[in-house]
Specification:
The structure holds 2 protein chains of 2 kinds. By secondary structure, chain A is mainly β. Helices cover 0% and strands 54% of the residues of chain A. In chain A, a hairpin with a 5-residue loop joins strand 6 and strand 7. Chain A starts with a strand and ends with a strand. Chain B is mainly β. Helices cover 0% and strands 49% of the residues of chain B. Chain B is built from no helices and 11 strands. In chain B, strands 2, 4, 5, 6, 9, 10 and 11 form a 7-stranded mixed beta sheet that branches. In chain B, strands 1-3-8-7 form a 4-stranded antiparallel beta sheet, with no helix packed on it. In chain B, strand 7 and strand 8 form a beta hairpin. Chain B is globular and about 40 Å long. Classes of the chains: A mainly beta, B mainly beta. Chains A and B meet through strand 4 and strand 5 of A and strand 5 of B.
Amino acid sequence: AQSVTQLGSHVSVSEGALVLLRCNYSSSVPPYLFWYVQYPNQGLQLLLKYTSAATLVKGINGFEAEFKKSETSFHLTKPSAHMSDAAEYFCAVSDFTGGFKTIFGAGTRLFVKA
Amino acid sequence: NAGVTQTPKFQVLKTGQSMTLQCAQDMNHNSMYWYRQDPGMGLRLIYYSASEGTTDKGEVPNGYNVSRLNKREFSLRLESAAPSQTSVYFCASRPGTGDNQPQHFGDGTRLSIL
């Protein structure tokens, strides 16, 4: 069965610092992996997705994530945090065994300090 | 470019009342989904519709019913609301179930049951 674990329900960084949000997944077959961002009072928006092409995936707003099969990880990074990055971030996994239903992690709230 | 539209945005109900949450998408997507979002639990799938005319249970279907009215519209009904159903409800759509495309989300319905 698929599952997603996001390490840390809250992460706080200073403006200009590196952002690292951790995600580990479990899937019995090659997965498709996604990162979504949610701003207050809004729905989820896609940041980036991994679909078995390049292992380093670049997304919007300067974010990127690296798929590491050996570590079953898909961590999200951004070199320099901006105040506008403050939001909640969700990692998600889907594969064909689940009919491509998507399983979401519990979310990580990112705080950015001035 | 409306995308996924949910109505209403906010609602307060008393225990035992019934209510239907509406969702419509204008992207000609085949698959539609209803999730609930609770703090620390990510998004949990309530029901989904792979295509017009079909619906299936997700992870947490008890206390809910759905109707896929046509290709555009997918409604969620609470027949007898309970305080445990206080949550934020999101509708999402995707081109199909047999693909790895990300989901598109509405802005949510914030439902409080007293």
